[in-house]
Amino acid sequence: MSAAAPERTTARAGDLLDVDRALGDEERLIAETVRRFVGEHVLPEIEGWYERGVFPRELVPELGRLGVLGMHLTGHGCAGASAVGYGVACRELEAADSGLRSFVSVQGSLAMFPIWRYGSEEQKRRWLPGMAAGELVGCFGLTEPDSGSDPASMRTSARRDGRDWVLNGRKMWITNGGLADVAVVWARTDDGVRGFLVPRGTPGFTTRDIHRKMSMRASVTSELVLDDVRLPEDAVLPGVVGMRGPLSCLDEARFGIVWGVVGAARTCFETALSYARTREQFGRPIAGFQLTQQKLVDMAVELNKAALLAHHLGQLKDAGALTPEQISFGKLNNVREALRIARTARTVLGANGISSEYPVMRHANNLESVLTYEGTNEVHTLVLGHALTGLRAFQ
């Protein structure tokens, strides 16, 4: 007779398939280190930050010392971690709050990455070490008031005036905008779309924070205003022309989302499971009722599938084989399922699910934004539709 299998504890229930067994020693250390940091520096305060609608600027140097800012890049003070290592860091950050992971994603994948990939050596030396250390903050200016899913229709322009560039336009829904020491702004030129480094304090460049948000409240979201902003010739990123530049940056950020939302979903699932095991109705814990168990099982299955998908895409990225369509696959599936898990977890908690005493509604609200940014659910569906059929549903 075989021995009975040991009872799985709540702490392990979020990883039924033992996906983390596939992590290397360094990746496991990254996950443990970031989770410990989040537990000490973020979880005790995140509810208050969210309610007040603030992101604490003083946290940024701490993130720099942690080594997560631009951690998947090499040189210039960056850690040079593997894609899977970066992924597990995003997972542990978003397990606390999507706003925290979003800050790290924008700093590393949308602001530092284009400088690292397309910038001159002088630009890299000027900006990257300070950004990796959390001494400087960056943002990514692509989305405009009238062009979200269609960034190629941007109106922001840059024209030559002697040896200088003069920029005019507006960028909207820019994470970190109000905090940023430098903005990577994408603008139309006579030669095509180019990226420009716009330091804070440049005459004509201002930011306006967006308030009254119901989602991503522990995150700074801003409008960038460029009115005859004059920049020197060396402000342009020399290594890329055209939409390939900003779209490659978005792929980097989407990869972090694929992993990050697994963390948010895990927190919601584990909160619901713990609650169901202790909350009694009709004289017994609600975890003992069939319909509640069905909810818990459905959440666990989708959570583990999402974790497997994230790990697989991380391995592909480390092998240099990850495609944009595969990133769209991951973003589409994992955000959609994380949001479903958050909504289902809320029903397990009943009325308590809407209380800030529990993190579920905060994660659900945040995931509504994650479903939309870095490519909407519909856009990623059509990207995959094109990959399957060879026919474009949009330009």
SSE order and pairing:
Layout: H1 10-13, H2 25-41, H3 46-52, H4 59-66, E1 74-75, E2 78-79, H5 83-94, H6 98-118, H7 121-132, E3 138-141, E4 157-161, E5 164-175, E6 182-189, E7 192-199, E8 205-209, E9 221-231, H8 244-278, E10 280-281, E11 284-285, H9 290-318, H10 324-349, H11 360-370, H12 377-389
Parallel strand pairs: 3-6
Antiparallel strand pairs: 1-2, 4-5, 5-9, 6-7, 8-9, 10-11
Catalytic activity: glutaryl-CoA + oxidized [electron-transfer flavoprotein] + 2 H(+) = (2E)-butenoyl-CoA + reduced [electron-transfer flavoprotein] + CO2
Domain Acyl-CoA dehydrogenase/oxidase C-terminal: 242-387
Enzyme class: oxidoreductase
Describe the structure.
It is a single chain. By secondary structure, the protein is an alpha+beta fold. It has 3 domains: 14-132, Acyl-CoA dehydrogenase/oxidase, N-terminal domain (Butyryl-Coa Dehydrogenase, subunit A, domain 1, Orthogonal Bundle), CATH 1.10.540.10; 138-235, Butyryl-CoA Dehydrogenase, subunit A, domain 2 (Beta Barrel), CATH 2.40.110.10; 244-389, Up-down Bundle (Butyryl-CoA Dehydrogenase, subunit A, domain 3). The chain has 12 helices and 11 strands. It has helices spanning 10-13, 25-41, 46-52, 59-66, 83-94, 98-118, 121-132, 244-278, 290-318, 324-349, 360-370, 377-389; strands at 74-75, 78-79, 138-141, 157-161, 164-175, 182-189, 192-199, 205-209, 221-231, 280-281, 284-285. The strands form 4 sheets. The protein has a 4-stranded antiparallel β-sheet with strand order 4-5-9-8, covered by helices on one side. It has a 3-stranded mixed β-sheet with strand order 3-6-7, covered by helices on one side. Strands 1-2 form a two-stranded antiparallel ribbon. A hairpin with a 2-residue loop joins strand 1 (74-75) and strand 2. Helix 5 (83-94) crosses helix 8. Its EC number is 1.3.8.6.
